[in-house]
Amino acid sequence: MIKAYKKFWSNIFNFSGVASRGEYWIPVIINYILGFILMALVQQILGHSIEDIYTWGDWSAKTGSLIISFIVWLATLSLRFRRLHDSNHSGWWILINILPFIGQLWFIILMLLPSKANNYE
Predict the structure, then answer these.
(1) 27-43 burial by CB neighbour count: b if 16+ within 10 A, else e?
(2) Is residue 117 part of a domain?
(3) Tens digits of per-residue pLDDT, 68-88?
């Protein structure tokens, strides 16, 4: 589990490799749990929602959270490309998410597919 999470962060700019199902789902689940805990902690410390900006401290917390969110989004995007390559699909399949509901459902199915023998390496 820790190995998959380390690989997630070490391949943040790798859009051409492959990632197994475990290498995809473990970081995704860990990031959701960590994000929920950290946002709750920050909002508890601030005493209000992070979306509300009353002071410069609130502004810096909001800016910091946006920067962290962008870095995690970029790492997750590259992970999604690698997972698609592992199931022998083009990275362009990520655009299926544009379609409401059906696109997201189909993308989850693509992420659940097993690895193919002759994947894009």
Answers:
(1) beeebeeeeeeeeeeee
(2) no
(3) 999 999 999 999 999 999 999
Q: What tokens were used for 38?
A: 């950290």
Distance CA 25, CA 33 (A): 12
Find all residues with CB under 8 Å of 118, minimum gap 6, and list them.
Answer: 88
Where is 36: in which H helix or E strand? helix 21-46
Q: Supply the pLDDT for residue 54.
A: 80
Identify the domain containing residue 54 by its residue range.
Answer: 2-80
Does residue 53 form part of some domain? yes
The span from the first CA to the last CA of the chain, in angstroms, equals 23
> What is the Cα–Cα distance from 111 to 81, expressed in whole angstroms?
10
Looking at the domain assignment, is residue 23 inside a domain?
yes
How many domains does the chain contain in total? 1
Structure-token pair, residue 65:
């959270």
Look up residue 74 and give its two tokens.
Answer: 């970029």
User: Considering the entire predicted model, what is its pTM?
Assistant: 0.86
Of 84, 51, 85, residue with least CA distance to 66: 51
